[in-house]
Amino acid sequence: MNQTNRDVNVDVAVVGAGFTGLAAAHELVAAGLGVVVLEARSRVGGRVESQANALGERIDTGGQYFCDDMTEVTALARRFGKSFHETPVDGELVVVPPAPDADPNDLFGMPIRRRMKALEPADPAIAGLTVADWLARQPEPEAVRTAFRSSMEGLWCLPIEEVPLWYLVSNDRRIDNRQWELQHFLGETLHSLAEDLATGLGGRVRLSTPVSLIERSEDGVVLSIHGGTIRAREVLVAVPPASAARIAFRPALPPRLAAALGAWRSGAVIKILIRYATPFWRGRGLSGMVTWRGMPGLYACDASKDTGHPTLVVFAGGALARAWHGHSADELRRVVTAHLVEALGLEAAGQLDFAARDWTGDEWSGGAYSDLIVDSAAVDAEDVIRAGAPPIRFAASELSPSYPGYVEGALIAGRRAARALIAKAGA
User: What gap in Å lies between CA 317 and CA 157, rounded to an integer?
Assistant: First the structure.
């Protein structure tokens, strides 16, 4: 991957080398267009990344999971010959505190989620309501409402007091998988898939190249980077909306577009991967899945790729991630271990490796897993952003018609935006 910053001229400059930008770039290159991909980080993948564990093996510390219903990412992983691993699910779910007589659906608030999905986003009766406002009106017992809150904050990583109801309904409807969304992970890491895509683009990808300014010119745009400029006929800003809002534009974007980009907030999540000598939970007939009823946004499951790598993954999302964001590494380990011991017993303290990635307030992505609209009046924000201000265009997983916020959605959004540019170039 070429990382020099001399001035260049291209047909399309792509800002961001996450899955959206990489997928778009491949489509554009295949159509014969000149492309450069500019990535602020020293790696590709965006919110999908990997780190080395104590064994020196790469592990996914960002996005990791997908399911068979996510056909784009599944096909891509097969194309690159990746090894698929099924998330282990055999055994009993642990609920803290225990709820021995609870309906399993109630433990994740599913009756409320199904009712929410049946709402119409444009219904005037829900205008101005947050998800929390609406939840308070539901007839289920408090335990079921708390389970729904935990499920939503675990999935979307924002307190539901901040999320407009119409938006979450619209968003949730576009996620229609029948298989569990944590069905598969890759032995080589999901991040390796992003690296493979980048390798296929050769010297077109420039790392450690943040864009400080996008300026319109007579024949397109000029992008300011450290040590040079990029001139392009079109620019595709392939970063999350809240990140795109932080880029400087000259002249300023149209007010309606600027407001649409400013309507989003990045989620807060901490992901922890813990390796053990043995999968001790299995010997007790447990699946490794844990949900804490009194800790919205906290969840754990078995992430072992084989018997030689017994691993639990713990997710803390939303308000909980914000509360833990200030912890030192030692304090975070102490707090997480205490919760695991409460759920699984003292063996949970016997850890070989504890790898934590706090995405809250991340420098380049703002957070994870995705951005959400927090302005209840921004009902047309997605359409406005997708329309862009040519030659300045935008794409992100959050704007995908299917699986927004997932790698699947990122691939769909990137390819869709690229095909629109290709059609324009051929017109």
Answer: 4
Start-to-end CA span in the chain (Å)? 31
CA atoms of 246 and 237, how far apart (whole Å): 12
Within the chain, how many helices (H) and strands (E) appear?
13, 20
Q: How far, in Å, CA of 164 to CA of 149, rounded?
A: 14
Q: How far, in Å, CA of 158 to CA of 137, rounded?
A: 20
pTM attached to this predicted model: 0.96
What 8-state DSSP symbol labels residue 204?
Answer: G
Tokens of 229: 């400029």
Tokens of 283: 């010997």
CA dist., res. 232 & res. 224, Å (int): 12
Q: Quick one: average pLDDT of 294-323?
A: 95
Other C-beta atoms within 10 Å of 133: how many?
14
| Closest by Cα among 354, 260, 400, 359 to 41 | 359
- What is the per-residue pLDDT for 6? 57
* Contact assessment for residue 412 and residue 72, using Cβ atoms and an 8 Å cutoff: yes
Which of 92, 96, 89 shows the shortest CA–CA distance to 286?
92
Assess contact for 30 and 199: CB atoms under 8 A.
no
**pLDDT tens per residue across span 352-393:** 999 999 999 999 999 999 999 999 999 999 999 999 999 999
Residue 2: pLDDT above 60? Answer: no
The Cα-based distances of 69 to 1, 66, 180, 265, 294 in angstroms read 32, 8, 9, 27, 31
**How many CA atoms, within 13 angstroms, populate the side-chain half-sphere of residue 24?**
36
Bridge partner residues of 12 (DSSP): 35, 234
Lateral strand order in the sheet of 311-317: 92-96, 286-292, 298-302, 311-317, 269-276, 351-358
Domains of the chain: 8-47+189-265+372-426 (3.50.50.60), 90-179+268-358 (3.90.660.10)
Give the dihedral sign, CA 277/315/284/305.
negative
Q: What is the DSSP letter of 316?
A: E
What is the rounded distance in angstroms from the CA atom of residue 146 to the CA atom of residue 294? 8
